[in-house]
């Protein structure tokens, strides 16, 4: 463990050195507020539902709660989330767009969380949900980053259940499954839990059960309509495939190096300057190979004289 710490610190330092000002500022703010929590109570920086709403209006907590952590493992998760967002999303969006994304996600998490606890208090009349609960941390931002990464991986991902279109509601294609948001090693477990939740939602009539439709009266013999196989899905996949093909062709064209005209001229000049091999001439008996044609001409002329 002690041997791995210097390498981890060096790797983290290299990542932060190449990061933008936004990523460095967010990481520094998380570390500063965590260290500050040892000296003073930083609870006023977290979203407390009873203080966010009137008459207190602690509005600033919507901007600070996402940077406040109370445990070292939470700090590690927050730093890793910000660094991953800077490495994978910032090159696509830019530093300003990443900062806007961070702000919108954290403000939304603070407001929605406060409203959820307010509704819980209205149902139970327990003041703990208003003045004891503190909403803080970057878990909401982590969820937003996962969704953004899923959207930038090439799939046109939308929410599966709320999506409405001409065919009805939802898209039951395999690449829209909830388990695909997680690493492959966790997908079987997440898929099992997701299927149980989906079955429960079907029983309470929030979601509809998947139905296979057979059109016997179609011009062809039998037309089968399965979820995720309609013409709109096929057209979307075709567009994605064309886009991926164009990107690959562009990369191949950029990597290929074509010879220039100067190289062709140099090769042609080298061929002209190279001596032409002499033709084979018969050798005289008892002697070695015959000399070149020019020497033979001179020797013959001397003998005749």
Automatic annotation (TrEMBL):
Q: Which UniProt keywords apply?
A: Membrane, Transmembrane, Transmembrane helix
Residue ranges of region Disordered? Answer: 253-290
GO CC, any one term: membrane
Q: Which residues cross the membrane?
A: 12-37, 57-86, 98-121, 127-149
Primary location class: membrane
Where would you find this protein in the cell? Answer: Membrane
In terms of InterPro entries, this protein maps to: TMEM115/Pdh1/Rbl19
GO BP term, pick one: retrograde vesicle-mediated transport, Golgi to endoplasmic reticulum
| Topology relative to the membrane | Multi-pass membrane protein
**What protein does this entry describe?**
Transmembrane protein 115
Source species: Molossus molossus
């Amino acid at each position: 463990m002690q041997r791995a710490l210097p390498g981890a610190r060096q790797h983290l330092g290299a990542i932060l050195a190449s990061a933008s000002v936004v990523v460095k500022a967010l990481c520094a703010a998380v570390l500063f507020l965590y260290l500050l929590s040892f000296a003073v109570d930083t609870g006023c920086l977290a979203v407390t539902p009873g203080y966010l709403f009137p008459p207190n209006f602690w509005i600033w907590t919507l901007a600070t709660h996402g940077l406040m952590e109370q445990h070292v493992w939470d700090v590690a998760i927050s730093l890793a989330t910000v660094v991953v967002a800077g490495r994978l999303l910032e090159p696509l969006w830019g530093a300003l767009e990443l900062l806007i994304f961070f702000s919108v996600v954290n403000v939304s998490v603070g407001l929605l969380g406060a409203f959820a606890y307010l509704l819980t208090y209205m149902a139970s009349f327990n003041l703990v949900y208003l003045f004891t609960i503190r909403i803080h941390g970057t878990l909401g931002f982590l969820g937003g980053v996962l969704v953004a990464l899923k959207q930038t991986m090439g799939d046109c991902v939308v929410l599966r259940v709320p999506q409405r279109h001409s065919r009805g509601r939802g898209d039951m294609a395999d690449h829209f499954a909830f388990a695909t948001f997680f690493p492959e090693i966790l997908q079987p477990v997440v898929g099992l839990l997701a299927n149980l939740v989906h079955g429960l939602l079907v029983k309470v009539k929030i979601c509809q059960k998947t139905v296979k439709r057979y059109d016997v009266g179609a011009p062809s013999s039998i037309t089968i309509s399965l979820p995720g196989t309609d013409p709109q899905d096929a057209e979307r996949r075709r567009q994605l495939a064309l886009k991926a093909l164009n990107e690959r062709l562009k990369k191949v064209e950029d990597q290929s190096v074509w010879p220039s005209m100067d190289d062709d001229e140099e090769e042609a000049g080298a061929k002209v300057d190279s001596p032409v091999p002499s033709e084979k001439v018969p050798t005289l008996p008892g002697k070695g190979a015959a000399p070149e044609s020019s020497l033979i001409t001179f020797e013959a002329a001397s003998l005749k004289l």
